[in-house]
Amino acid sequence: MKSDTSPEKSVKTVASIPTAPDIDRQRLDLLNQLWIIKRGLERAGSDRTVQMNLLRKDARYLQGVLEEAAASSQDELWRAAARVRELLAQGIIIDPEMDLETAPTILSQVNFNAAKAPTAPRGMHLGWAMMPIVLALGVLIGALVMGWRPTLQDVLPARQAAVTPTLPAKVVLRIHGSNTLGAELLPAMAEAYLKREGASSVQRISTAANEWRVEGRINRSVEPVAIEIRAHGSGTAFKDIGEGTADIGASSRPIKKEEAQHLSRFGDMNSPAIEHVVGLDGIAVIVNRNNPVRTLSKAQIAQIFSGRIRDWADVGGPVGPIRVYARDEKSGTFDTFQHLVLGKTELAATATRIEDSAELSDRVATDSFGIGFIGLPYIRNAQAVAVADGDTLPLLPTPFTVATEDYPLARRLYLYAPPNPQNAYLRDFLEFAITDGGQSLVSAVGFISQQVTAARPPLSESLPSRYTQLIKDAERLSLSFRFRPESSGLDSKAQRDLERVVDFLARHSGRRVLLLGFTDNSDDPTQGVQMSRERAREVERELAARGIFATVVEGLGPVNPVASNDSPQSAARNRRVEIWVM
Q: What CATH number does the domain located at 170-278+417-428 have?
């Protein structure tokens, strides 16, 4: 018999308690059974507390409590558990507005017998009413005889088995950090990864500002699974890893020394086992499309963003005030810009700070006197300028100049993940991200993938003759091998790049390989040539171990710099090995 009240009618809080005829009796029945279970379990264990608010909000918590009640020796408990499951199977839930802590006040007004079906003859009524209990007891007796312990499903009537409460998705992976990575790339990568794993009904759910859950049903998990993404800046990646609230930290800058020291319990945070380069990006310095300024040096950019240059006329533009737009303090984009351009100089106090990359780009695109910096996918309707570092050739942030890291404001995009053998999703996701499936997505969202290509780049007329002679008929691969700080060992990206080069040459058989080493100008010319040759030979040894034998291996010293050498970071960019094929 249906209650007098429509199922859609919400149960109000105790502040305005309705009269009994207005109350949804099925919901109150559900609530009553939950209170029976709560009191019974708490009586059974002196230290046991059953949280009613969790029974309402957390289906997994509810399931665990029901399992415990169903396995109890108290008849009252497993009958209550069976009734709860029956009501859930009918789609009955507790109204979210109901105040569970004051529920007994509401229940005291209701006679549950009034909600039952019309009374049958006494004998028939008792017989049919006891039938589910008799059947359930039979199952329990059988369980004891056979020596196995029943689950909740074993003691419930068979008619309920076809319908079960919908469980919330189980979070199997938590990725926190960079807004640059988290805005689009990581959600897209999470969707593609779950689909590759055979997941169905994959969906992206926004849970808060700059936060998502990507959910899907996957065969190897009984319940739906979810990948949690929180994109509040690269700094939060390392904080959350340290606090144990993230499995993977996404960062648009390398980990800082103090961050690595704080996380040293996980091992060497710069090792290939923990540090994974997922793609590359160029920080584009953008202006309004109507602005005639098309080239700026790093020094000029630093002076503009620190407030020392305040008029466009001082850098070859029209007379007018320069309005500076910058990413927020937590942003990895800002961290990288500070690191590569400003150094220890402070950002101008008049700069407008913006958290969202797309919004910053759009603000510059509509401001004739605006200038900002942004990741490559967010140039949108603005105009990128070519950037020169010292006496180097001004370069635009193109896929090739960023991939080779020759562009002065190129940067790597990282995933940091302390190993966790218990989480198979962690290992599988990382492998997906850095191999072809993930790298295709890196390109699709506008970043620069690590898939190797060959091209003939524009060359400066001032290059030394030996260099131009060696590469006369060659193409350059879209990567440069670089080394760990203060070490002759290849860095984490270079070690992965070795495998990428092998794959490229397997697809393009018959190519001859040239390895050309370079160094910064901190050493005397003779020592510089020797050091650059040794770096080229290190790459040669690694490739030879993989069955690739270079035709030419030379060290050219400090020639053809891609950075100014005026800082340790710039000098490190010049210590590299280029790979050419012909």
A: 3.40.190
